[in-house]
C-alpha cells in the first residue's frame, strides 16, 4: 500500500484459539480502513499461538512466534485456550505456556481495561433500567506481571500451593500509572486490596499511599476486593480509576465488562511503559460460541484502537474507530451477547463498523 507519510507499523497478529481468529478478521479489516484514511502503512503478520500452535508445532509459543513479536512494533492478540488442551501439563497449556510468558518477556506490567456504559445503548444492558440512570466510565489499571499468577507453585497428590509476592518497585510503577491516568480523567483512584488479611495487600496499601503524595490533586480511597465487587454492581458511577493487583484486576474487569453489557465489549492494552504493547480482548476464547459466527468482535476492534493510541500515537485513528463502534452500538447493530434477539453476527457487526468508517471518510 502506498501512503503519503513514511509512517509504517509492523504488527504481530496472534489470533489464537476459539473465537480469536473470528474476531481478529474483523479487527484487521478495520485497521486496513483506518490506515488508508489516516495515511499510515501497516504490515500485519500472522503467527501461531496457544492451542493452535500446540496442534501445529507441539509448543504453545513457538520460537518463530516469539521472534516475530520481538521484530514487531506491537502485538495484536486474540485469545488462547479451550477444553481441547486442558489435559496437558500446566506449563504446556495455552494460557500458562503462551500468554503469561509473552507478558513476562516483554515486561507488560501495566494492563489497562477501560469500561463504560455507552448511554446510547444502555437500554440493551443486562442491568437495564438501573444502568441507564447510574452510568459507568471506569479504567481498570491492573498489575500484570507479578502476584499469584507468577509466584512459586507446586503440588503433590494431596496438596497444592500458589504464592503471591509483590515488591515495592512493582507496586510503585503500576500505582504511578493509575495516578497519572486519573489526572487525565476524574482525579480519583480506588485502590483494591485485601489488607485486612494479606501481607501483600498491606504492602500494596502502604506503597500506594506513598505514591499518592506525589499526586495531591488526585483523591485516593482504598477498598477491600469483596466490597469493591459488590459496590461495582450497586453503584458503578462512584468509580473512576480502579488500581488492582493481577488477580483482583482479572476478576473485577470481567465484572466491569458485564456491567458495560458484555465481555465481548471490553478491550485491553498491556504495556511496558516504553511504548511496546500487547493488545487483546479482556475475555477468553469463548469455546461455547466458537465457530458459530456470533462472537462480538468489538473488544478485539477496540483493542486495535488502543494499539493505535498507545503504541503508535495515532490518536485520530483510534478515536475514529471508537466513534464508529459507538455509532453501531447506538443503532443497535450488536451481536447476541448484547441483544439475544439480534440477527447480526460477527462479520455483520465488523462490516457495519467498517462501513461507518468509510462513510466518515467521504
Ligand atoms: N486472554 C486470553 O487468552 C484468555 C483466555 N481464557 C481462556 O479461554 C477459555 C474459555 O474461558 P472462559 O472461562 O469460558 O471465559 P471466556 O472469556 O472465554 O468466556 C466467558 C463467557 O463470555 C462469553 N464471551 C467472551 N467473549 C465473548 C465475545 N467476544 N462475544 C460474545 N461472548 C463472549 C463466552 O461466550 C462465555 O459465555 C479458557 O481456556 C480460558 O483459560 C480466558 C480468559 C482470557
Ligand atoms: C490467562 C489468564 C490470566 C488470562 C485472563 O483471564 C486475563 O488476562 O484476563
Ligand atoms: Mg480474565
TrEMBL record:
<dbReference type="GO" id="GO:0000287">
    <property type="term" value="F:magnesium ion binding"/>
</dbReference>
<keyword id="KW-0963">Cytoplasm</keyword>
<comment type="subunit">
    <text>Homodimer.</text>
</comment>
<keyword id="KW-0479">Metal-binding</keyword>
<dbReference type="GO" id="GO:0005829">
    <property type="term" value="C:cytosol"/>
</dbReference>
<keyword id="KW-0432">Leucine biosynthesis</keyword>
<feature type="binding site">
    <location>
        <position position="113"/>
    </location>
    <ligand>
        <name>substrate</name>
    </ligand>
</feature>
<keyword id="KW-0560">Oxidoreductase</keyword>
<dbReference type="InterPro" id="IPR024084">
    <property type="entry name" value="IsoPropMal-DH-like_dom"/>
</dbReference>
<keyword id="KW-0464">Manganese</keyword>
<feature type="binding site">
    <location>
        <position position="250"/>
    </location>
    <ligand>
        <name>Mg(2+)</name>
    </ligand>
</feature>
<protein>
    <recommendedName>
        <fullName>3-isopropylmalate dehydrogenase</fullName>
        <ecNumber>1.1.1.85</ecNumber>
    </recommendedName>
</protein>
<feature type="site" description="Important for catalysis">
    <location>
        <position position="194"/>
    </location>
</feature>
<feature type="binding site">
    <location>
        <begin position="82"/>
        <end position="95"/>
    </location>
    <ligand>
        <name>NAD(+)</name>
    </ligand>
</feature>
<keyword id="KW-0028">Amino-acid biosynthesis</keyword>
<feature type="binding site">
    <location>
        <position position="226"/>
    </location>
    <ligand>
        <name>Mg(2+)</name>
    </ligand>
</feature>
<comment type="similarity">
    <text>Belongs to the isocitrate and isopropylmalate dehydrogenases family. LeuB type 1 subfamily.</text>
</comment>
<feature type="binding site">
    <location>
        <position position="226"/>
    </location>
    <ligand>
        <name>substrate</name>
    </ligand>
</feature>
<dbReference type="GO" id="GO:0003862">
    <property type="term" value="F:3-isopropylmalate dehydrogenase activity"/>
</dbReference>
<feature type="domain" description="Isopropylmalate dehydrogenase-like">
    <location>
        <begin position="10"/>
        <end position="353"/>
    </location>
</feature>
<feature type="binding site">
    <location>
        <begin position="284"/>
        <end position="296"/>
    </location>
    <ligand>
        <name>NAD(+)</name>
    </ligand>
</feature>
<dbReference type="GO" id="GO:0051287">
    <property type="term" value="F:NAD binding"/>
</dbReference>
<keyword id="KW-0520">NAD</keyword>
<dbReference type="InterPro" id="IPR004429">
    <property type="entry name" value="Isopropylmalate_DH"/>
</dbReference>
<dbReference type="Pfam" id="PF00180">
    <property type="entry name" value="Iso_dh"/>
</dbReference>
<keyword id="KW-0460">Magnesium</keyword>
<keyword id="KW-0100">Branched-chain amino acid biosynthesis</keyword>
<comment type="pathway">
    <text>Amino-acid biosynthesis; L-leucine biosynthesis; L-leucine from 3-methyl-2-oxobutanoate: step 3/4.</text>
</comment>
<comment type="function">
    <text>Catalyzes the oxidation of 3-carboxy-2-hydroxy-4-methylpentanoate (3-isopropylmalate) to 3-carboxy-4-methyl-2-oxopentanoate. The product decarboxylates to 4-methyl-2 oxopentanoate.</text>
</comment>
<feature type="binding site">
    <location>
        <position position="142"/>
    </location>
    <ligand>
        <name>substrate</name>
    </ligand>
</feature>
<feature type="binding site">
    <location>
        <position position="103"/>
    </location>
    <ligand>
        <name>substrate</name>
    </ligand>
</feature>
<dbReference type="GO" id="GO:0009098">
    <property type="term" value="P:L-leucine biosynthetic process"/>
</dbReference>
<feature type="site" description="Important for catalysis">
    <location>
        <position position="149"/>
    </location>
</feature>
<dbReference type="InterPro" id="IPR019818">
    <property type="entry name" value="IsoCit/isopropylmalate_DH_CS"/>
</dbReference>
<feature type="binding site">
    <location>
        <position position="254"/>
    </location>
    <ligand>
        <name>Mg(2+)</name>
    </ligand>
</feature>
Amino acid at each position: 500500500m502506498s501512503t503519503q507519510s513514511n509512517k509504517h507499523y509492523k504488527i504481530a497478529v496472534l489470533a489464537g484459539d476459539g473465537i480469536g481468529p473470528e474476531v481478529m478478521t474483523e479487527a484487521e479489516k478495520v485497521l486496513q480502513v483506518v490506515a488508508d484514511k489516516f495515511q499510515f502503512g501497516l504490515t500485519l503478520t500472522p503467527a501461531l499461538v496457544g492451542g493452535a500452535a500446540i496442534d501445529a508445532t507441539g509448543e504453545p509459543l513457538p520460537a518463530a512466534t516469539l521472534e516475530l513479536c520481538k521484530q514487531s512494533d506491537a502485538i495484536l492478540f486474540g485469545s488462547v485456550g479451550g477444553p481441547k488442551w486442558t489435559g496437558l501439563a500446566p506449563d504446556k497449556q495455552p494460557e500458562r505456556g503462551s500468554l503469561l510468558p509473552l507478558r513476562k518477556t516483554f515486561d507488560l506490567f501495566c494492563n489497562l481495561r477501560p469500561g463504560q456504559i455507552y448511554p446510547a445503548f444502555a437500554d440493551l444492558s443486562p442491568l437495564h433500567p438501573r444502568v441507564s440512570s447510574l452510568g459507568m466510565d471506569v479504567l481498570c489499571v491492573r498489575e500484570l506481571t507479578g502476584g499469584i499468577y507468577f509466584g512459586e507453585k507446586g503440588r503433590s497428590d494431596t496438596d497444592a500451593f500458589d504464592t503471591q509476592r509483590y515488591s515495592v518497585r512493582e507496586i510503585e510503577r503500576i500505582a504511578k500509572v493509575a495516578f497519572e491516568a486519573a489526572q487525565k480523567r476524574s482525579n480519583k483512584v480506588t485502590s483494591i486490596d485485601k489488607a485486612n488479611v494479606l501481607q501483600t495487600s498491606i504492602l500494596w496499601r502502604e506503597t500506594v499511599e506513598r505514591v499518592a503524595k506525589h499526586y495531591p490533586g488526585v483523591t485516593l480511597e482504598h477498598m477491600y476486593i469483596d466490597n469493591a465487587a459488590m459496590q461495582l454492581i450497586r453503584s458503578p458511577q462512584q468509580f473512576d480509576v480502579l488500581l488492582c493487583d493481577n488477580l483482583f484486576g482479572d476478576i473485577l474487569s470481567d465484572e466491569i465488562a458485564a456491567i458495560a453489557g458484555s465481555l465481548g465489549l471490553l478491550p485491553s492494552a498491556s504495556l511496558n511503559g516504553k511504548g511496546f504493547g500487547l493488545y487483546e480482548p479482556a475475555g477468553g476464547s469463548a469455546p461455547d460460541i466458537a465457530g458459530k459466527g456470533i462472537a462480538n468482535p468489538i473488544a478485539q476492534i477496540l483493542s486495535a484502537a488502543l494499539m493505535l493510541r498507545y503504541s503508535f500515537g495515532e490518536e485520530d485513528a483510534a478515536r475514529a474507530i471508537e466513534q464508529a463502534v459507538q455509532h453501531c452500538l447506538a443503532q443497535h447493530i450488536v451481536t447476541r451477547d448484547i441483544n439475544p434477539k439480534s440477527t447480526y453476527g460477527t462479520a455483520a457487526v465488523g462490516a457495519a463498523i467498517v462501513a461507518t468508517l468509510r462513510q466518515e471518510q467521504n
